[in-house]
Amino acid sequence: MPKIDPHPKALASLAPPPDVRTVYTFTGVTGLELDCTAEGLRIWRVRYQVGHGASRRERKLRLGSATPRDADYLTFGQAKDRVAETIAKARAGDDQFLVGRGHRAGGDTFGSLF
Fold first, then answer.
1. What would the pLDDT profile of 34-79 be if each residue is shown by its tens digit?
2. N or C: which terminus of the chain carries fewer CB neighbours within 10 A?
């Protein structure tokens, strides 16, 4: 993954990659990724980990679009703030990856559902 400087001019100068999907990370911003496709799509994502040891899992969660014309557009600052919130919630035990898929944060056991 190429690492770029989180400067507005650097973000604006990113050209769509030729025929490949490229994921950029940012210097000094842990967990934030910009996923760029050859078709011109730009998606903000957060990458974080939940659990410890053998039960540790890596998560990738879509935050929004980096294209101003899209309805879910986020600026770099907004995406950076959402990354900090998502990682803080994950450390507190609230995994947004599962919440977005209809699971409750605490998790139900088979016995409680039965």
1. 998 888 888 999 998 887 788 778 888 899 998 888 899 998 899 9
2. C
